[in-house]
Records
---
Amino acid sequence: MNKKEFMEKLDKALAGIPKDEKKEVMRDYEDHFSIGLEKGRTEDEIAKSLGDPASIAKSITAEYSITRAKREPSIKNIFRAIITVTGLGLFNLIFVLGPLIIAVALLFVAYGVAILFIAAPFLMLVYPASVSIPSGDTPIWMVAVGLHIIGDILLVLSLYITKGFYKLIIAYLQMNAKIIRGE
Amino acid sequence: MNIQIKKGVIEVCVFAILSKKDCYGYELAETISSHIEISEGTIYPLLRRLTKEGYFTTYLQESSEGPPRIYYKITDQGIEYKKSLLKDWNNLTKGVNELIEESEKDE
């Protein structure tokens, strides 16, 4: 592989990062070739010692997407970070997406239960038959109010977890990127 | 060499070299390559990340031939990090070597 081929492959694989960032990265490798040539090495030798441009680009784009998700939190950026990080290896797809899906599912369940509990007293008023709880000697309205309070607590807790969850995803991705960086 | 091990090793090498003198990327790649086998291209993303994390700063210096060189200089934060990194490294290699020695004794 000569310099032109190496730079073209790198350029193509770096599509995900902004232009100015890309320019700086390309410059690093451009300079590396120039200095190597001055020292009497051939383009092929230099390209070979640099390694595979596609895997170099992968680690750069993954790193970049995590930095951005941290700086500008949004669903789009976090999703992009997941894609680029998992793009580093199919193996890691399981380790990133698996726990993520389970965690999101659990959160959804928590929200669902919270809303149902909060609605319990109202459901009981409107459709008395819809709330059938084995309550023993305790009046049913007390059970419903109790459920409502538990639902409130659960909702607040879920919101709180959701907030922390975002940070956790980023930390988790970072850890994954660290493990597989540049593979 | 296992790629994961190599990543950590390159980081240790970069800190060791830069704590002695400022270097440009090519120089670092060349120096490390002369001791261990690496893909030199991995140096630049590493330098970029460690610079972003505040361990190095960069400055430009003209060269008699070719493009101006981007020099990397270790920061105070980098020196602190290097200390803990080398401590970890020494503990690790010491532990591994002891294990190997013991296993060889048994044979």
Note: Chain A has a mean pLDDT of 82.
---
Amino acid sequence: MTKPKKQTRRTFLKLLGVTGAGLVIGVAVTRDRSSPFPTNELAFEPDAFLQITPDNVVNFFLPHAEMGQGVYTGLTTLIAEELDISPEKIRVHHAKAHAAYGHPEYRMQITGGSTSIKVRFQPLRQAAANARALLLDAAAEQLAAPRSGLTTADGDVVWNGERFPYGGFATTAAFLKLTDDASLKEAAAFRYIGGNTPRLDARAKTTGEAEFGLDVEIPNMHRAVLVRCPVIGGAPKSVNANAARETDGVTDIVTIFNGVAVVATSYWQAKKAADKLDIEWDYPPLKGKSSAEIRSAMEAALEHERGKKIHVEGSGAAALDDTKSIVEATYWAPYLAHAPMEPMNCTVQIEDGKCDVWVGTQVPELARGLAAFHAGIAKRHVTIHQKFLGGGFGRRGMADYVSEAVAIAKESGKPVQLIWSREDDTKNSFYRPASLTKYRAGLDSDGRIESLSVKRVGPNILPHIIDHMVDGILPAAVPDGIVAWLGDRPHSVFKSLAGDPFSVEGLFEDYDIANKEVRHVTQDPGLRASYWRSVGHSFSGFFKESFIDEVAAKAGNDPVDFRLAHLSPDSILRGAIELVADKGAWAAERVPGVFTGFAAHTSFEAGVAQIAEVSIENGNIRVNKVTCAIDCGVVVNPDIVKANVESAIIYGLTAALHGKITLADGQVEQSNFHDYTVIRMADSPQIDVHIVPSSRDPVGVGEPGLPPVAAAVGNAVFAATGQRLRDLPLKLA
Amino acid sequence: MISFTLNGKPVETDAPADTPLLWVVRDYFKLKGSKYGCGLGICGACSMRVDGRSVRTCILPVSAVADRAIMTIEGLGTKSRPHVLQDAWVAHGVPQCGYCQSGQLMSASALLEQNPNPTSEQIDAAMSGNICRCGTYPRIKRAIQDAASQLRVDSGSGDSS
């Protein structure tokens, strides 16, 4: 097993003196003595993940959110492997918010950063192996059999050819001393890992039975629609609710921190009434800003500001002074919304000093903290009931909709389900930040890059994330004034750090170049920003891979050969590049009118390379096919890996060809799928995904397929037309 | 009172006449398989079969379906008695987040009833009203093609390939 020398996201975060979310999340780690699931004193409950009952039910409490990426199946497969039972026989439950499910790296319960399989690969297998060992101990005791004579097979203990279901030993096992070091299977003995277990949630997701947040029903549930300030961050100043109040079905109209909510017995009544509210707003400083001004300000900053030095190798940008042959180019990526299919929603009941929240969230512990804050109830009295997520993509890594729903339930005194409209969702996201980046490369006499300088201008997401989390991670007893004061702190704390790793990740790491210098100029118009599928890589993959292609062309070199020549010997990109060049027949002639483009990018520790095949039809870019290779380490479920990569490619193509959030007078101009266009079936290319065989531990899968695709398409457009498209979304002149 | 049939059963509702069918089915009849996605009839998450056709119900007032036959995902098939498309969806690993899939299946089932042998372009056209942000389109298409050949075999009219 070779470890890549390249900086992974983690080491890069450390380099900058920020342990990512840990900077914030460290505060939240508390002892939680409550039970993570409903206990049964006759059942075997070795840890927070597993419960085996005397009636032979194996319950697995899934510590991560299922949002399409397949952890419901993948993590269950890890349990199945070491417990020795078919994955289909395990009953999977969404875990509630509890410290026991904390992400081993982020130290809080989070689904994000393409890490679920990576960080659970060892611990969940170990948990299951420990449980199996204890079941065998219990069986030996109960059957008065020699331990060495016992084995297991698909959920049964086997002795003398006779099979005994695990459940029969559960109560005995419950009273044995836990073991924590049962030995794990060798990879060669894997039965389920590496196999294509069909998705365990597929059946429920084709019959309508899978329960999403929006599908929750609780007794006496009312529906709420919230009207927010047209400019994000504003608050209501005065409200005339007379007409709304007279609408049929309306029970309450309440003002909360960011808007005015109508509570009614049905959604349609609440929505109709909400349209009748007449609200005057206190606008935030974002009002008045437009996308054109934001871009000119960034262009001016790129031109005039040197920026903060983030990273230097060799003699940095100074090396460019001695270089004769310089290539430079500037790239742009706009703000983006996530637009998951299920708009934000949250169901809340506050009763008898307890608060119950039903929600699909990537951050259950943060959701619990925010609910506690807004309900004015201690965290231990708040229960988060996790549901299937109708898409996450990072949007559900923010829990603003939980804060809103709890505030409305508290003010109205009713059990409520807050439902966002699609318009609410598009106009109140936490956006992928716009970015402007200039590259300069100096070539030596052999046409090799000897120096690289990168300067990125744009907002950082960390201050926005920290702002969002403050209320949720501090004890509810801290007075509002102090919370507000702390909420302002991160900005100044942040200024003393070298930089936000999410702003520059992926811009410079992949290629082995003797001299590098990375600079950053922070320009933030104030539109809230956060994680968006692949985060900084969502723009840096396009920037870096478009630029390397330009340099290769300038050096008169083949795009694949040029990239390979600039990889360090142990780069994890090498295998992916070579595999895709072979499977995608890079060197082969295409039919007339079809042009190819190449891109490769490392993110979330996975190496991905892609070939896009593009044609130009009536002045439009048509992507016919994408061939992709991914090196993501050991694969738990190859078909789900392929599905994730297909998904990331199509999500990335929407951004490459259509995605753009713009502001006018501080307001987001887009509202729904007619003006925030997404790829539909007819525009979806043929996609072939190939997996690089690997024995290194699993790494990211959900996001790494996205970063190269826009560059692969743009590079193919250059091959087709000679035009270098340096702005996203890609549009032919 | 507005009457119609819902998955084969006669029903009636006192919901306000302008309430979209989607919300009547979800909030009054508590069938939650059909989803809200856009409210403009442009994403397809709310698709139901109305007299056989796949219709966007988030913009269809319930008054417009008086005396009509409505089928939702709950009426297409069940875990124990799945529709051939539902089996194909599982076999091809179609659902990711799964939120749009009820609507996708209603459009796909309407297509196959009208055209048991659709071309790739006909599938594109029939499915053009249904968005999937997880990008399951390639798998949806393969599942439809697979189910179509399955149906042709079952009905004895199929190709033998």
Note: The longest strand of chain B covers residues 2-6.
